[in-house]
């Protein structure tokens, strides 16, 4: 392409400081360096993790930055040493890398990678290298993706090449939320046919977890949320029963235990609330119940009585649904194209990058499942 090797001037939504609206600015995006790929972002969605970093994260040295990590685009150019990608390839940037060389990547036990960018910078960590500048100031990347921009630069170990027929304004959701929830049920919990499940929280991740439970053959799937308006949507993805904790004068774990003769086989917490994590664990049946923490948070400690685990329950966590990213995302795109997983049904709003603050407000008020922002024409 004509822009290869040159600085690109484009528009991006810059977070200059935490807890403030994003600002649409003209930025400069430098050419990709060794092992990097410069991507024209076609569509990106707003995820709760973006809000967490902007509104709840207490570390203020990660600004200015460009948020966004659930996206799809087209390769514009590649840096030296990149052989896997060519200009024109359709791709999904990944917030979890897969270098295929570290001890984690070589193990079938995990989808972690030693080279994954940290969501939260700890005190003393060096600032990540950046290809973005705005008004003469360096703008930091966010989890190595920064997709609230018309162009971004990502390391090749954090990019998945996808089917060229895939609609980018739909499959962008497979860059985070859907894989996170679906995989938590299928890969992490390993839901079995004929089992009972409870999913706490019916945002995009929770609905994807419901879909994963159904795909795994669960007999009963309890959708738990304090917003009854979400129950009809959950039914679309396979929920069979609905529990609103506000309708009961006893703990929801007790309600579920009474409805299931002792507790569910699997529970998935998809909110990021430490109190609900405990409720989800206590909703599992003793002996073999498995509870999976899916919702992201790093603000508070979580707790439970030891007897809950001594009695035979398992409490575990799941990041990106246990999918090894470069392998799993193209497989999920294929599953979508083969009509084996739903994606379109998650999208409740379509907007443009200029409306990113409106999209953030919708998510803050729980008035959307996913809002997809159109960023660049294909």
Descriptive report:
A hairpin with a 2-residue loop joins strand 7 and strand 8. This protein has helices spanning 48-56, 168-171, 177-189, 204-215, 231-237, 252-259, 274-282, 306-310, 325-337, 356-364; strands at residues 8-14, 23-29, 36-45, 65-66, 70-78, 90-93, 132-134, 137-141, 151-155, 159-161, 196-200, 220-224, 241-243, 266-269, 290-293, 314-317, 347-352, 370-374. The chain is 24% helix and 24% strand. With 378 residues, it is an alpha/beta fold. It has 10 helices and 18 strands. The strands form 3 sheets. Strands 3, 5, 6, 9, 10, 17 and 18 form a 7-stranded mixed beta sheet that branches. Strands 13-12-11-14-15-16 form a 6-stranded parallel beta sheet, sandwiched between helices. The protein has a 5-stranded mixed beta sheet with strand order 1-2-7-8-4, with no helix packed on it. The model has no long low-confidence stretch (mean pLDDT 93).
């Amino acid at each position: 392409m004509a822009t290869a090797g040159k600085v690109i001037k484009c528009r991006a939504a810059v977070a200059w400081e935490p807890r403030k609206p994003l600002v649409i600015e003209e930025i400069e995006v430098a050419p990709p360096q060794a092992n990097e790929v410069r991507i024209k972002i076609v569509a990106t969605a707003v995820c709760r993790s973006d809000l967490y970093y902007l509104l709840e994260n207490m570390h203020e040295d990660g600004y200015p930055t460009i948020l966004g990590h659930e996206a799809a685009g087209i390769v514009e150019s590649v840096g030296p040493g990149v052989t896997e990608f060519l200009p024109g390839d359709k791709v999904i940037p990944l917030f979890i890398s897969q270098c295929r060389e570290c001890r984690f990547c070589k193990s079938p036990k995990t989808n972690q990678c030693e080279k994954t960018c940290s969501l939260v910078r700890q005190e003393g960590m060096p600032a990540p290298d950046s290809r973005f500048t705005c008004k003469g100031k360096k703008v930091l990347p966010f989890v190595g993706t920064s997709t609230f921009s018309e162009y971004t630069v990502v390391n090749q170990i954090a990019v998945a090449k996808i089917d060229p027929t895939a609609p980018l304004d739909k499959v962008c959701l497979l860059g985070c939320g859907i894989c996170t929830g679906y995989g938590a049920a299928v890969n992490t919990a390993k839901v079995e046919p004929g089992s009972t499940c409870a999913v706490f929280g019916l945002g995009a991740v929770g609905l994807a977890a419901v879909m994963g439970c159904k795909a795994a053959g669960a007999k009963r799937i309890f959708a738990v949320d304090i917003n009854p308006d979400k129950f009809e949507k959950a039914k679309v993805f396979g929920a069979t029963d609905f529990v609103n904790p506000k309708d009961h004068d006893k703990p929801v774990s007790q309600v579920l235990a009474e409805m299931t003769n002792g507790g569910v086989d699997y529970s998935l917490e998809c909110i990021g609330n430490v109190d609900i994590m405990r409720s989800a664990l206590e909703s599992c049946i003793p002996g073999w119940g498995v509870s999976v923490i899916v919702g992201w948070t790093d603000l508070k400690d979580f707790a439970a009585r030891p007897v809950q685990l001594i009695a035979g329950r398992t409490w575990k966590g799941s990041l990106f649904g246990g999918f090894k990213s470069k392998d799993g995302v193209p497989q999920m795109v294929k599953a979508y194209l083969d009509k084996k997983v739903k994606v379109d049904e998650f999208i409740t709003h379509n907007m443009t990058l200029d409306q990113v603050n409106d999209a953030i407000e919708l998510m803050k008020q729980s008035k959307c499942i996913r809002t997809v922002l159109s960023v660049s024409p294909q």
